[in-house]
Amino acid sequence: MKQVANQFWFVVGSQHLYGAEALKEVEKNAKEIAAGLNASDAIQTEIVFKGLGTSAEEIVNIVKEANYDDNCAGLITWMHTFSPAKMWIAGTKLLQKPLLHFATQYKAELPWNEIDMDYMNLHQSAHGDREYGFINARLKKHNKVIFGHWQQADVQAEINDWTDVARAYNASQTIKVARFGDNMRSVAVTDGDKIEAQIQFGWTVDYYGIGDLVAEMDAVSDAEIDATYAEYEKLYDLHVGDNDEATYVAHVREQARIEIALRRFLARGNYDAFTTNFEDLYGMKQLPGLAVQRLNAEGYGFAGEGDWKTAALDRMMKVMAHNESTGFMEDYTYDLTPENNVIVGSHMLEVDPTLAETKPKVMVLPLGIGGKEAPARLVFDGKAGEGITVSMVDLGTHYRLLVNDVECVTPTEAAPKLPVARVMWHPQPNQKDGVKAWIYAGGGHHTVLSLALNKEQIVDWARMMNLETVIIDKHTSIASMQQL
Fold it and tell me: Could you give the 3-state DSSP secondary structure of residue 337?
């Protein structure tokens, strides 16, 4: 998969009005802040001080360099003094990378016994922030604003969250989805305008017949399958169950064949997301299950039934979450008892193992769908914790993103006859209103579930993409959803 830029340039606004000595002090303070942010355990990215922006020409040159440097994931700007915003217009209009306006100040406290006009003129962030903020609003940059002292832990955590969003924004521009087969027949919400998605989000979606994958599978050697099977033995519990051992091993090895072929096909085409469809399996013995889950664990985006939008969204969110506790999900069934009130999420086979709380078991069980032999898959229970479910829908006139705050819970009841992994959650504001709000907003049955991300990060990404976003959380009213 493609590498994602992880370096952010720190550009500090000032002007020549205050003299050369003042600019030396500005630069000294700026370098100290950059070094302090880099030294923080809370910030997991590299922040590079790129100098002062004291003229339109300097700012334009910095922006041009940032746009064409593949190592630069975005700009972090700070207005140390009053930086006249007219000189930022030309450069900001050119900027094609994410922009964070860091509204901070060199010192947290004010030296009341010493403060004079020289101090006031030099430390004018409160003045400069408003001038700079106005021009970003006027230019509709959809930039992020973070306010607070640069040494505060919560501020550093906000910066880190935003850098993850910016990395995902850049990754989104080059996401490539391989579709093996078309969308599931007669299903509406999984389809959409691929050209508009490429224009707005950067996603490229390419179709392949399932025969292209079958041909790749035919080229996989027994030695390669042996090596992959040995990995399974080290990582998972191989649960033979009611199968005879020879049948079990043969079915698991078939998933290894699919996995190797899929990885090779995706790597050759530089794809980082893919879809399959259980209605299009000609030439295959099994629906891909374990094979898909293994690629999910490596960071590939995925969605079933030809749902290319969710596959691309999955990949983007995996980049944002560093592939932690984030994966494709489907709302499957409800527990409507008053003491539980949960949604049970799963899919036919492909529940992402980054969401696993228990050690996955490799099981071979009939699926009852797809018309093929019993596929091998990883079965586990999902993690508990606060998270989000996210869905992208095409309304014909525009795309809409739905984000629901959820609380995942670890299952307490065994499900010995359920042949797939399961994840369970309580939607906000409650099950009744959360489900109704989702339906009123047109939300799909396919989502990406993450316990590593928060809704603010998804909103930040959506603002960068100029994407309509509907939030369903503890403040949601059904009346507001009915007005969409």
Answer: coil
Question: How many other C-beta atoms are found inside a 10 Å radius of the C-beta of residue 127?
Answer: 15
> Do residues 379 and 420 lie in contact, with contact meaning Cβ atoms separated by under 8 Å?
yes
Please give the structure tokens belonging to residue 402.
């739905």
60's tokens: 């334009």
Q: What are phi and psi of 93, to 5 degrees?
A: -60, -30
Residues constituting the chain:
484
Mean pLDDT of 253-270: 98
Within a 13 Å sphere around the CA of 236, how many CA atoms are in the beta-carbon half? 23
Kindly compute the dihedral angle of the four CA atoms of residues 282, 283, 284, 285, in this order, to the nearest 10 degrees.
Answer: 110
184 closest CA partner among 273, 308, 293, 296? 308
Q: Answer whether 36's CB lies under 8 Å from 150's CB.
A: yes
The CA distance from 218 to 289, in Å, is 18
Ramachandran region, residue 148 (left: φ > 0; alpha: ψ -120 to 50; beta: rest): left
Cα 416 to Cα 361: distance, rounded to the nearest angstrom: 13
| CA pair distance 310, 320, nearest whole angstrom | 15
pLDDT at 419: 86
Question: Mind listing the pLDDT tens digit for each residue in 449-482?
Answer: 999 999 999 999 999 999 999 999 999 999 999 9
Largest pairwise CA distance in the chain: 86
User: What are the backbone dihedrals phi and psi of residue 391, each rounded to the nearest 5 degrees, phi first?
Assistant: -140, 140
Closest to 348 (Cα-Cα) out of 288, 273, 284: 288
Assessment of whether the complete model's pTM goes beyond 0.85: yes
> Distance (Å, rounded) from C-alpha 405 to C-alpha 471?
8
Task: Indicate if the pLDDT at residue 225 is higher than 90.
Answer: yes
Mutual orientation of helices 290-298 and 245-268 as an angle, nearest 10°?
A: 40
- Using CB atoms within 10 Å of the CB of residue 16, give its burial: 0 to 12 exposed, 13 to 18 middle, 19+ buried: exposed
Amino acid at 257: R
- Which positions ≥6 away from 258 have C-beta within 8 Å? 213, 217, 284, 286, 288, 291
- List, as one string, the DSSP characters of 29-64: HHHHHHHHHHH-TT--SEEEEEEEE-SHHHHHHHHH
pLDDT category of residue 157 using cuts at 50, 70 and 90: very high
Encoded tokens for 36: 């302090």
Instruction: Please give the backbone phi and psi of residue 11, each rounded to the nearest 5 degrees, phi first.
Output: -120, 130
Token readout for 49 is: 């001080």
Burial of 89 (0-12, 13-18, 19+ CB in 10 A): middle
Judge whether 203 and 467 are in contact, CB under 8 Å.
no
pLDDT tens, position by position, 67-112: 999 999 999 999 988 899 999 999 999 999 999 999 999 999 999 9
Cα 117–chain centre separation? 47
